[in-house]
Amino acid sequence: SALTRTESRGVHYREDHPRRDDADWLKHTLLSRTAGGACEVRFKPVVITRFPPKERVY
Question: Rounded to whole angstroms, how far apart are CA atoms 4 and 39?
């Protein structure tokens, strides 16, 4: 599922996409298998109720 994202987030760092992209990727990635055994990728928006995301500095 991390390869589906064209961004870096948390411990998932991609050299080709070094920044976080909340506009397009602030969502949960859901993986499941179809009856035929193939992987299905779906996304569910994150509902922020208390703490808005902020940039982390390491």
Answer: 12
> For residue 16, what are the domain limits?
2-45
| Total number of residues shown for the chain | 58
- Which residue(s) pair with 14 in the sheet? 17
First-to-last CA distance in the chain?
24
Written as one letter, the residue type at 14 is: R
| Number of domains the chain is built from | 1
Asked whether the beta carbons of 2 and 12 are under 8 A apart, the reply is yes
Question: In CATH, what number is assigned to the domain containing residue 41?
Answer: 4.10.80
What was the pLDDT predicted at 41?
Answer: 92
pTM here is 0.69
